Request: fold
Amino acid sequence: MPEKYIISVDQSTQGTKALLFDESGVLLKRSDLLHRQIINEKGWVSHDPEEIYQNTVCAVKKLVETSGIDKKKVAGLGISNQRETSLIWKKEDGKALADAVVWQCARSTEICSRIEQTQGTAEKIRERTGLHLSPYFPASKLAWLLENIPGAQELLKRHALCMGTVDTWLVYRLTEGSSYKTDYSNASRTQLFNIFELRWDEDICQMFGIDKADLAQVCDSDSCFGKTDLEGFFPTKIPIHSVMGDSHGALFGQGCIKPGMIKSTYGTGSSIMMNIGDSPVLSTHGVVTSLAWGRKGKVHYVLEGNLNYTGAVVTWLKEDMELLTSAEETEIFCRKAEQNDSLYFVPAFTGLGAPYWDSNARGMLSGITRTTKKAEIVRAGIECIAYQIADVVNAMKQDADMEIGELRVDGGPTRNKYLMQFQSDILHTKVLVPVAEELSGIGAAYAAGIGLGLYTEDIADHIDRKKYIPRMEEETRTAKYKGSKAAVRRILT
Reply:
């Protein structure tokens, strides 16, 4: 039997990665391209959709060419994407009408405030979509684009406009406009999708000035989303056989396919996600409910908590405070620092996300003494990452009424051994760090490979993982976590 390969594209906030896997699921090679972060004087965050598409094409071409594999042996393509980033484009030629509104951007706050003025609307949205009314989600971002971009309304009236998240954009362009689709994971994060009835919600769409007929077809995450030859690069068209939001891809890549399994992705921010099976649970403890994926005609639900500042704290310490010359230094300073002080950092630079949802809260460094030095401040910055994740995990345990046996983690900050041990200690739970990185892309590749019959369902079990086991004394753990909670309470508005 001739060897076959799977390619996955991980289109993230910072750039685009193309990953090559063999028929055993082993990552052989990767190719990366960064894209511009467009930030204007108002603090609006945007990406150029055309740049993202071209980088996707170029990254895949470079991957195949530098690997030396036979193009004919590529069996299929999977996509994982930055979620919530939203854009609109012409149905006729696939040209974007404006830069994409990035998930971090809150320019649509006024639209959410306007909708919230109608009594009961916010709760209605939460009860149907599982999500808190927020400019974080695509519903208000798309509404902003439709209201503010010249020509959008005219195209909308003629049903000549496409809209959605980055996955839908890439599928549309890669298939030359023949496929206008999204998957359950991305649809569930738009705040337009009824996660109980598994359809676009007409009432909610109308609130945001959107006709549900103009939205993409929602498909199983492991289905065929169309075929592409990558602008003539492949001799025959290959199937795009999986699409997942990046965090959902990481959940799948981590092998969290059973209820109660939980993962945390440590990136710029963090997504903590718990598989709760085929029955949805609406959170009463500050996290949200969405869909993990749709596979083989069935969906799985998740509880999710999102944090704005985890890995970004390291960036702040390095680039803004100039306390570090490299991210790797954090571990050195953490081990050097006094361990028994009461220094806490709360990174509420732009408010607090899950489970507090206080957009008016502001950051704080508390417990400073005369002996506080650079090392202690760095350590507090690193430990705040673990405290935030513990808050979300504990909220999920209460909502789902499930105990967790382990936390599976991924992302750049997981290389910090101090942070991983502290995370295990403060949660009093095993923490498993995969040797392989790029879990979002791995999840998309595995889903595509399974869908194409190349991989078996247990493919993720073959990943080697480093294990961290709690070592901190219970009295110390309790006191430290109690101190962190007290620090957060001081800044809540």
